[in-house]
């Protein structure tokens, strides 16, 4: 049993003698305030000997119908006000206690469009500036919540993409290694063909063209086999640029480019690729395969390998 109400009516407390005195404006006013509040029904306002306003418990009939009336008033607000209704016994008399927390979807209004806020123990009409401030704060909270959800979803996508990129890169590296063995074998055949050409001076020109055609076919085969590389390259670079995250994918590409060239160029054909005409054709093909690399960078790597192979022939 609660003996008495010691807190005077004010910023967060209001007394109502009867449920008929409860208005939707009272609920809206507390919901729009920063601290929320409590409304007691069955308590009469009176002043003590010091002139302070206190509440005298007179009691109120308790019934499901009265409780439903209170809840209906809260639901009629726009948006509905979240409240809890309790029954208390004070000085042997029953009363209602309505708890109204500060709302999270401010501003609230009655179904007739009245906006109120609690202040100085009274309900005051909201000013245009107060209304605008509440609207902006509500939209800010909504935006932050949506942004958090989007960020979480994006982090999940990024994590999954990282795993997939790593997996696909490993597969591609293995494919390149296997292809490199085959390319080396093909280049040895091309080298043998070039050696035979030297024995017949009259057919040198036609045989060189055949070698060039065979080489071009091999590079085109390589280009078709590596179609996954530019797709992965584009995806990962877009995501890394967007979130300003550094990655080692370019380093992996550099290693791939150098390994492909190193397996393609042999000591026996290195001198021929020193010629700018032949070098340009192969650099152009490599640029198509690795579009994120500058052509000058690819050319530099190509000529470094050619130089190394040429020197090893002596």
UniProtKB/TrEMBL annotation:
InterPro entries: Schlafen_AlbA_2_dom, Schlafen_AlbA_2_dom_sf. The keyword ATP-binding does not apply. It holds the Pfam family SLFN_AlbA_2. One of its GO terms (molecular function) is DNA binding. Keywords: DNA-binding. Residues 9-126 form the Schlafen AlbA-2 domain. The keyword Transferase does not apply. Coiled coil: none annotated. This is Putative DNA-binding protein.
């Amino acid at each position: 049993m609660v003996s008495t109400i010691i807190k005077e009516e004010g910023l967060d407390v209001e007394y109502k003698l009867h449920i008929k005195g409860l208005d939707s404006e009272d609920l809206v006013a507390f919901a729009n305030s920063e601290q929320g509040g409590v409304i007691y029904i069955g308590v009469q306002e009176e002043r003590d000997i010091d002139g302070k306003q206190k509440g005298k418990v007179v009691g109120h009939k308790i019934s499901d119908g009265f409780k439903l009336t209170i809840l209906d008033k809260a639901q009629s607000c726009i948006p509905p006000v979240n409240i809890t209704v309790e029954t208390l016994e004070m000085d042997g008399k029953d009363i209602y206690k309505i708890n109204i927390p500060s709302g999270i979807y401010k501003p609230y209004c009655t179904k007739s469009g009245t906006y109120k806020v609690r202040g100085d123990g009274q309900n005051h009409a909201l000013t245009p500036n107060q209304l605008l401030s509440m609207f902006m704060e509500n939209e800010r909270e909504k935006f932050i919540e949506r942004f958090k959800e989007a960020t979480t979803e994006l982090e999940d996508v990024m994590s999954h993409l990282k795993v997939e990129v790593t997996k696909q890169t490993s597969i591609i590296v293995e494919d390149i290694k296997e292809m490199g063995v085959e390319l080396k074998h093909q280049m040895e055949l091309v080298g043998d063909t070039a050696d035979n050409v030297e024995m017949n001076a009259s057919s040198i020109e036609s045989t060189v063209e055949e070698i060039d055609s065979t080489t071009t076919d091999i590079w085109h085969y390589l280009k078709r086999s590596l179609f996954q590389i530019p797709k992965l390259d584009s995806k990962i670079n877009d995501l890394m640029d967007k979130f300003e995250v550094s990655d080692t994918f370019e380093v992996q590409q550099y290693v791939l480019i150098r390994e492909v060239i190193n397996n393609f160029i042999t000591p026996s054909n290195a001198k021929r690729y020193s010629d700018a005409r032949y070098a340009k054709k192969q650099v152009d093909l490599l640029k198509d395969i690795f579009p994120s690399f500058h052509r000058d960078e690819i050319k530099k790597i190509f000529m470094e390998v050619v130089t190394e192979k040429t020197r090893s022939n002596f």
